[in-house]
Every structure is written in C-alpha cells, then in structure tokens.
What does this fold into?
Amino acid sequence: MMISIDPEFRDRFRPTFVAVAVSAAIVALSGCASSGGSSSNGGGGGSDNGEEEDTRVLPTYDQQAILDDDGDTVEVQVAVIDTEFRPSHEEFDGRVSGTKAVAGYRDSVEATEDDDGNPDYVHGTPVAALLGGQEFGISGNARMELIAAANEDGVVFGGQVVEGIAHAVEEGARVINASLSGQWSAWDRKETVGHLQEVTYEKPQEDGESQTIEVGTAGVVGAGNDGSNLSEDDGPDDPYIDHEGFDYLDEVWEQILIAGGSRGWKKNVNSNYPGQDEEIQDRFLVAPYTARSATNTDDDAEGMFNGTSFATPRIAGMVTGIIAQWPHLDASEATGRLLETASQESELYEENDCGPNEDLNCGYYYLGQGHADFEAALEPKGDVVQPAGEQVEDDESHDVQESYASWSHAFGNGFQADEELFDGAVAFDELGRDYRVDLSGHHAGGFALDTHVRQRLETHLGNASVAGDESIEIAEGVSMAARHADSGELLTGRFDMDFDGTRVSAFGFQGGEENPMETVLEGADTAMLSSTTPQFTHSLDDVAGVAAEVGLTDTFSVSAEYWSGRSDEDPAERMLSEDTVGLSDYGVDRQDVALHMQATDELRLSLGQGMLREDNGMLGSRGYGALNLGDEHELHVTSFGAEYAVSDRLSVTGQYEYGQGRMDGGAGMIRSIDNLRTEQATLGVAWDGDDHQVALMANQPMRVTGGEIEASVPVGRTVDGEVVREDRTASIGTDGRQTDIELGYSFMPDRDSRFNANLLYMDQPNHDPNASGEWAGAVTYAVRF
It folds into this structure.
C-alpha cells in the first residue's frame, strides 16, 4: 500500500467564531477549554520564560490516507464515543458510517439547544472532526460511527460508555476514541473486555478465499486535564488509574492507549501525566493539547479547543492509519507500533531527577513513550528483507538494500525486460509487516560506454607499440608469438607446436585484450580499437587456454579449444556492503569443437559447437540478494567461419555465432531465464604490405536477442506467516544491434618506429536503437630507443 498526503488538507482554517460551553458530567470530558484557554508550561510545570526557542521539528499532524493497490482509499471502521455530534457538518461529508444515541430515551446524537437555538454543549463534534474529518482529521481512512453517550443534560454515565463500546464493536470498530476521563471503571468490566476481543478481520488469501483472524479493538482514552499524576491516589475525585486494582482490563491492557497533551516538546501544564507507574507509562502518548477543529453551531463552524480530548483523536487517527496500512495487525500490534516509534527528542528524556524521590527519567514520567509520530510508525523496523523461502521468518532472506543487478553489454547495459515485472513486490521488516519496494533503481548497467572507449584507447596505446606481435620460431614446427606493452608487460601470448598434420597450442591473454587464437585480422599486424572478444571477458584478470587441431584428410580437420578466466573485480563494490560483495568470484570457461574444411587453396570453412559456462554471473551480468542470478549459467554456441585469401597480401575473414541456453536462478525473485538466445558476428578485411598494413572491420558484439525471464515475486503474506508470491514471466532481449565499423592503418618506416591511425564508428551503441552513433579515433607514433 502507498501513503498519500493531500496538500489541500494542510493549513485550511476559516476564522469562524464559536462560543463553547461545557457542562459537568459524572464521567468528565477530558478536554474542555475553548479558544483563549489557559496558558501552559512544559515538563513538570516549569516556566519556559527565558529559554531559547526550540527549533526541532515536531511530528506532523497533516491528514494522511493509505491507498490500496488500485489507488482507492482503504476504509477502516472506527467509533467515537462522546457527548454530541453534528452529523450535518461539512467535516463529516462521506466520513460517517452511522450514528447512535445510547443514553436514556434519546434518539438524536445532536446536543440539546437553549431558547435561542444554540447548542447547550459541544465536545464530540470537534473530537470526531480531528480524528477523521474532511479537513481537520488526521486520518483519511476513518469511517466513523458517532455514538452519543450523554443524556439530555450533556452528562455521561459509565453505563452509557459500556453501551457505547458494545455498539462500536457490533459495528466492527477497529478503534474506539473515548475523549472522556474518569471512565476506567466502565472499561474494567467483564462484558467490555470481552467486546474488545470480538472484532475479526477477513484476510484475503492467494486462492481467492479469506481467512478470519481475531484482531480486537484498540481503545484510545483521554488522560484528563487536572495536571495530575495518574499514578497517585489523592482522593475520590482524583483521576488516579488503579492499574493493580483492575479486575478484567489487564487482559486487554495492551490494546489501550492513554492520550496526554503536549505543548511543543513538553507536556501541557494542565494535562494529566503518567507519573511513576511503568504500566501507565508504557501505554501513554502525547499529542498537541491545542487544536483547531469543527464545532456544532453551524455546518461550517470551527474554533480553537484545548484539552487532552483533542489530543486523543489525533492519536486514535494514527492507529487507524496503521491498521489501514496493515489490516492484519491486531489491536495490540497496531498500538504497540505507535508506542515504540514515538518521538523522544524532548530534552525531558535526558533528565533523571523526576518523581517522588527525584530519581526517575523525566521523559517517561511526564510524556510516557513520547510524542506520537505516524510517519515514524509507518517506517520499517530493522532491515527490510525478502525471504528466500515460503515463510516470512525464513532463515535465509535478502536485504532489499543489498539487492542489486549489474547488467552487461550483451543485455544492452540494462534490464531489457518489462519494467512491471517486479511491480508490487513487497519485503518484510522485523515485525513481519509488508512494505512495497521499488526495485527500478536496483538495476544498472555494468558497462559504461565512455569508460569502455577510454579503456580501449588505453589498451590501444599499449598494443600500438613498435614491437607489435613478435613471433619466434624456436625449432622446426615450434613457435611462439607474443604482444607486449612498451613497459614490457605481457599482454597476449601463444605457443604452437606443429607435427604430422597436428597443431597443439597454449595461449593466454589479459582481460580486455584480444584472444590470440582469433583469426579475424590474422593477416594484418594492426592494433584496433574495437574488440571481437565478448565484453564480459574484459573484466577477467587473465585468461589461459589450450587448443589442438588434427588433420583428418587433406580437406578436413577437427579442432578443440578450451579457455578459462577468473575475476576478483566486482561491479557492485561501490553500491553494496563488504558483506555482500566479493562473496564469490566471477568465472568463465569455454570449450569448443569445430570441423574445418579446406574447400580450395584460398577458402577455409569452419563449423563449430561450443559451450560457455559461467559461475556467479550470466554473460557478464552479476546479481545480488533478491536479484541474484544463480550460481551457474550455460550457453551452447554454434559457430560458422570462413577465411578467404584473395591474394598473398589481401584476406577476408568472417565469423558468426549463435548461442542458446538457460539460467537457473537462485533463491531470489529471478528463478530462471529460459530459451536465452544470443548472436554476434564479425567481418574483417586485412591488407599486409611490406611496411604498411590496413584493416577494415565490421563487428557486431554479442547481444541477447530473446529469452523468457521467470520471476517469483512476493506480493504479500498470510496471517500465519506464509509468503504470498506471484509467478510472472516477461520477454527479455535487446531491440537494437550495435555495429562497430573501424578502419585501421599501420606504418613502420623502420624497425624502431611505428605510426598507427584508427577511426571507429559505433552505430546503436549498447544495442540501443534510439542511441546516437558514437565516433572514436586515435593516432599514435611509437619510437624504440
């Protein structure tokens, strides 16, 4: 579910004047002052005079609405038990589910009127408006049952509170707001406690059925406005909470919240406070003591109100929002989340000289758990993870922040699949609550074009040395070829032995260099910017291999080749923690078998079959956490090649490879990629003169042309902790086709100097059909001293 804050709900107050009168009650109203009420001090009643202005930001009380997957407001049934209500007030338009008068013979929830037609008392209208009103309400999800418990004189008796609770539960209320003090005897009744445990929730299941779970009802009660310590009994009229004397309420005490009033980061001087009883402290929260809200003199009337009565609905509205977000939470879990995330930024929590013996923490003594903070309550507790198994509390799970996929050049340097594949995915916090996660930013390309071109230029500077490829014939049939950087570092090497129609070779090359066994430009000793070796080999530290070719007849021969490389480099090392990166190295092995046919003296044809095997990656792509790509990937490759010697100096060579394979994913969301198809092609023309060499090459790097990605996406959970998953599929593949066209020229005026010039054009770079073409060029001159 998503959270939406409507800016129209913020700071819209009309200067309508209202006079407020309050009547005495057997069960007193816990907030009762109108505009112009008494001033209040903070903490334990100390004066604020002379203190510096507090610049900290208090929790927000803007209206917030939880939306469902379709963007509709989630409705939560709540109840407000109070003296009166004006249902026709514009604040209640579309927000009231029903009304009920439970006192005496009354059939109206509106206040009685005096001879001039003015209400005799007001209280419930502003309270309900602060909970779920159109403008003043903190919760856009509340659908309120308005229960008037006062008699004709505005007096509320404990029996009417009991009846009000019973009616609220009958209507399925998940939250009851009772801005009434001195009502604990009404709540501490067997039938009331039983009612608070009756409400159930029908939890939708994956099979379309529903599961009934007991969630109960949360009760939010006003602390009162005597400035009294709720832990001390100072007489029969004192608002003392005799927690140890409860007969039944202890059974549902964790479903109850007590609302005190704050002024800034301190308690309002008139608000009652929890005192030294830890049981009261544990259920105590504060919200602003003063609020602007609707009143009952007219359908658009409003005014200012003071009292814990008006802190109470704001806290009740927050509980409502939590239930809207996670309807499967029971009353104790919903209220508990608000308690444990309350803000304790008040300096009172840094003081420890309160209480009868001046040895208690002042924050807990005056504010309980602190300032209720709805936004903090919606934040996850601990890490947000996706279980690898079928249970929310699975031993193996993936931290969403450590879930990342780096896609290689073959995939178009990005996630080339339906972006909605992972829409609606959820993860779970330590409490098992589900949070929708956006993984769009967790996919990235592991191949930066500008970085690649720069690296190729740097490599080119080394390859364009005076030495070029050095070949040495050690003995008859035994030779060695190598390419060194000017620094002497070996870049590529090849050792060959030819005897009786059989050739055996050993070779090696650094990552980013050309495989010395490639024959595309074998006829010219010209360094090129573009590369015919797959991009994913560029990240390998080094590659080593062996090859052999055996002649069968004068026309036919067979060859076999194997090479392997490993890399310690991890593309996610700047994104993820050290605990995630480097857990396993990336490795590539390739083996090929080919049949060669010398069709004529000038033309040689080849047909090959090979297999590419990767560890901890797929075509150079790497995945971690919930986006991991499994441990192994295999690609079966069919290759076609042709070499044609036009003359002693001019040759044409072409190669085409088609790959098909699959990937078995890991325990993350990507479970497999089936029917993965790749292709790459190269055509080269080389001319080798005595001192001049010219090469023209058209190269189409490896790209993924198609495949089906299968994902298992967690979208929710059942009540018993089973992860609800959706199996989804999407096509994957690049839409474009990168083509590199390069012209290279090399000139050696003498054995100690070399001039090289290269011009490269890349069409549709990164296989992106919408990308502009890119140019690169290099001119080098090397001299050996």
Observations:
- Residues 1-26, 33-42, 44-50, 578-583 have pLDDT under 50 and may be disordered.
- The first strand starts at residue 2 and ends at 4.
- The first helix runs from residue 124 to 132.
- Residues 406 and 444 are 5 Å apart (CA to CA).
